[in-house]
Amino acid sequence: MSTWDEARWLADEEPVHGQLTIDDLCSSEYREQLNEMADKRAWSGGGALYVNEVIKLCRKCEATSLLDYGCGFVDMRAEIDASGQVLDRTITVQSYDPGVPGRERLPEPADVVLCVDVLEHVEPDRVQTVLKHVFALTLKCALIVISCRPAEKRLPDGRNAHLTIDTSGWWQHQLFDLGDWKARLIDDGGKTGLLHVWLRKRATTHGGTMF
After folding, report:
1. How many other C-beta atoms lie within 10 A of the C-beta of residue 149?
2. DSSP β-ladder status, 194-201 and 181-187
3. What confidence tens digit (pLDDT) does each residue in 24-39 have?
4. Quick one: fold of 15-164?
5. What pLDDT is stored for residue 102 in this prediction?
6. Closest Cα to residue 56, out of 66, 46, 45, 44?
7. CA 201 to CA 211: how far, in whole Å?
8. Is 81 helix (H, G, I), strand (E, B) or coil?
9. What is the mean pLDDT of residues 33-47?
10. How far apart are CA 113 and CA 110, in angstroms?
């Protein structure tokens, strides 16, 4: 079965959010590597760079909940408050990261899911499961940014910190074929090496002025 066909097959199954364990998403061996890096504060999390965009997307889809999936050490609630911008409605924020102690509890679905500088760090044999998890957790919209190039940092065992490196086109196939998304491509990564996309679930949202 090709990767593309596998994505279609996964999308046809019932969501397995409630059946997943953290080991399905991130092996215990890899978590040890991530925890060691977390002890050294080797990264912070990419979501803080996109706080204004997150606020804009939350407004567009009238969100009352937000999930920072793969948050690192970023506190998105604090980032939103520090921006000085006022949201139209109260929003609850979850932070999830399997590699940061205290943030590894599996999250609940949210109207908006932020997944920045995360998917390229996923183990290749777990990419499809993580993608399906992100889709199942997204109630309305997702903001996803994926690096398509090697990282400057390495894991303690010597591997490049980006475990799954592929082209922007390959990642787009994985994302767009996984479910019934409406996509807005912000950056195809041709010059920056960063695929940057907004995704909207057609089944739970209407187009209007959203995107």
Report:
1. 13
2. antiparallel
3. 999 999 999 999 998 8
4. Rossmann fold (3.40.50)
5. 93
6. 66
7. 11
8. helix
9. 81
10. 6
Tell me if 70 sits within 8 A of 97, measured CB to CB: yes
Q: What is the pLDDT of residues 144-172, one digit of tens each?
A: 999 999 999 999 999 999 999 999 999 99
Bridge partners of 66?
Answer: 93, 112
Tokens of 10: 């996964």
Torsion angles phi and psi, residue 143, rounded to 5: -115, 115
User: Cα angle vertex 139, ends 86, 189, to 5°?
Assistant: 80
- What is the pLDDT confidence band of residue 52, given thresholds at 50, 70 and 90? very high
Distances (CA, A) of 23 to 26, 123, 124: 5, 11, 14
Tally of residues, the chain: 211
Is-contact 72 44, C-beta < 8 A?
yes
Token pair for 38: 């977390």
pTM over 0.90: no
Question: How far apart are alpha carbons 3 and 9 in whole angstroms?
Answer: 10
